[in-house]
Amino acid sequence: MTGARRSTLAAALLAGKGFDAVSTVVVLSLSDSVREAVPLSRALMAAFGPVGGMVVLTVLTLVAFGLLAEAGVLVERRWPDETPDWYAPTLRAGVYLGPAVWFALVGVRNFTHLL
């Protein structure tokens, strides 16, 4: 798989998580009746402020999912005869795109708190 394909998948994850992060900061700043439900997000936002906390969380998310997405390459190298050719690229696409869609949906749900 080319670096361009990997970067496209990572960009999709960044877009989804970025939308979630922006929606979280916006909703928390505009509504007093809403609070962050995820303990890690709350801790990071308390330590670094709302924007800084979301930036740190976004970077951690990209690193964690990036490592998980590339785990298919390790499996492929460890067991080359037993691993189908499609395994690593399919795992990579699923690991990047699944959470990207999830985070985008969470971002949409966050904005519904303002309605």
Automatic annotation (TrEMBL):
It comes from the Archaea. Keywords: Membrane, Transmembrane, Transmembrane helix. This is Uncharacterized protein. The chain crosses the membrane at residues 45-69.
